[in-house]
Design a protein that fits this description.
This protein is an alpha+beta fold and 481 residues long. The longest helix has 14 residues. InterPro entries: EvaA-like, EvaA-like_sf.
Length: 481
């Protein structure tokens, strides 16, 4: 799957950037300063990720009783088998490997105002599965095992700002789900905390304004998944751009109005919640944890170097040896889930009665905790459906793939969780459909405004991490380049 290599992020050409607005320049660094700092952090640190056989994992092994791939401490996570039964018409029952990580980690962004302008403390962090080495992560991104120092390494920097009793003001605090296709019941605590303290600045961290962050969200593989999920939760009162940022772009104004809830929605929020509850009540999702060795009848093979499917689809489980000079532990080994192909997340949007609406679907994945969550209009790995009958292909997939360029409002490649996935990437699209767009009669889809979706974020298990990434990225459309 991968060869021994040094995972170094390429230096970024910053010459195409226009100067920042005055409000953004009041912060600790300009955009050009940021890229100089980011490239310097890349040069200052060395990263190496090499695929190894399972037998060379240190502290990890296949349990002789369960057959699952586990850590000797019983902490971190495990790779187990999952049997799933649903009532959907296509492939209603299957088995697959799944990542089981019952611990709830902390994803936190620290906010501080400089000259009245909110800034976020972000870090340049390497994860073993990152496609380009360093990416921008939240102030704190740590599992419970990591911040409890089960690994025996250094303390997690800035963690005290997110502990109970800290002097910061909590702006957001909620449990959010992660990839239901690859995790079993996985959730992390998303926190946004504002402080007035003088915060010592570590060399791998920098202060960025929300305007700057919006610009970075438009770059491929720059803002990691953990940053995007927390950024989607930042209260609109803190993050809403000024009207001048929208310029003369009518679509940008539509995003702003839909986010602020200043217009009428097709369905009120109570109707959206009732519809999702009905889907959850009618959708069957029976999950049974089994040993990895019991997945052979489902086409999965456990080999010395990987766990993979006989059809060459879905994903593999591999093992890697990692060296990273700026992590709490500088060398370790671990399993990673490696998708076979990139995914596609496409959100169809439409102005209805003058208000921008997004067409969201209620999706049920193998490892979801609460049966179904709201996600993008199209949410799939297209390669998995190459030989599937047309009537069972994802609804709206072909519409998204054939969208003309002038209808595409956002097109960016984002990486997914590099701590658990190897080179997992999705293409994130926002497509504004025509006024005469014909909807499917599939009852799993509803139109909702951005404000309605944002209002669901304080509650757990309503929006998938992929939809939250799209919402964070859509906010970048309100920042001119």
């Amino acid at each position: 799957m991968i060869e021994s290599s040094t995972a170094q992020a390429a230096a970024i050409d910053t010459t195409w950037y226009e100067p920042l607005t005055a409000s953004a320049e009041n912060g600790a660094m300009s955009m050009s300063d940021f890229h100089s700092w980011f490239n310097a952090r890349t040069r200052a640190n060395s990263f190496q990720v090499e695929q190894i056989p399972f037998a060379e994992l240190r502290g990890w092994d296949f349990d002789p009783e369960t057959g699952n791939l586990v850590h000797e401490t019983g902490r971190f996570f495990s790779i187990e088998g999952l049997r799933v039964r649903t009532n959907r018409p296509w492939m209603s029952e299957w088995g697959q490997p799944i990542i089981v990580q019952p611990e709830i980690g902390v994803l936190g962004i620290l906010v501080k105002r400089f000259d009245g302008v909110p800034h976020c403390l972000m870090q340049a962090k390497m994860e073993p599965g990152n496609i380009n080495g360093l990416q921008i992560s939240p102030t704190v991104q740590a599992t419970r095992s990591n911040y409890m120092r089960v690994h025996g390494g250094a303390d997690t920097k800035y963690l005290d700002y997110f502990r109970p009793g800290s002097r910061g003001r909590v702006l957001f605090d909620g449990l959010q789900s992660e990839q239901g296709s690859w995790f079993l019941h996985k959730r992390n605590r998303n926190l946004v905390v504002e402080t007035d303290d003088d915060v010592p600045l570590d060399e791998d961290f920098c202060w960025l304004t929300l305007d700057q962050i919006r610009r970075l969200l438009l770059l491929d593989h720059m803002m990691n998944m953990d940053s995007r999920t927390v950024l989607s939760c930042i209260p609109p009162s803190l993050s809403e751009p000024s009207k001048q940022d929208a310029g003369d772009d009518s679509f940008t104004h539509a995003v702003l109005r839909s986010s602020a809830g200043r217009s009428r929605a097709v369905h009120d929020t109570g109707e959206i919640l009732s519809w999702l509850t009905e889907v959850r009540a009618q959708q069957e999702l029976v999950q049974r944890r089994v040993s990895l060795k019991h997945l052979t009848e489902d086409g999965w093979r456990v080999g010395p170097d990987s766990i993979n499917h006989r059809d060459g689809k879905y994903f593999d489980i591999i093992a890697v040896a990692v060296q990273a000079s700026n992590r709490e532990v500088t060398a370790w080994t671990q399993p990673l889930l490696a998708p076979r192909q990139p995914g596609l997340l496409a959100l169809l949007v439409k102005r209805i009665g003058g208000t921008l609406h997004a067409l969201v679907q209620a999706r049920s994945d193998a490892g979801m905790l609460n049966i179904a969550e709201l996600t993008a209009t199209v949410h799939c790995q297209p390669g998995n459906y190459a030989d599937v009958p047309m009537e069972h292909r994802p609804t709206y997939l072909d519409h998204a793939l054939a969208a003309p360029a002038h209808r595409v409002r956002l097109d960016v490649l984002h990486s997914e969780e590099g701590g658990r996935f190897h080179h997992a990437q999705n293409r994130y699209l926002v497509i504004e459909v025509e006024d005469d767009f014909t909807e499917s009669d599939d009852d799993r889809y509803r139109w909702a405004t951005l404000h309605q979706l944002t209002s669901l974020l304080p509650h757990s298990n309503y929006l998938t991490v992929e939809l939250r990434s799209l919402m964070a990225s859509m906010r970048s459309l309100t920042q001119r380049l």
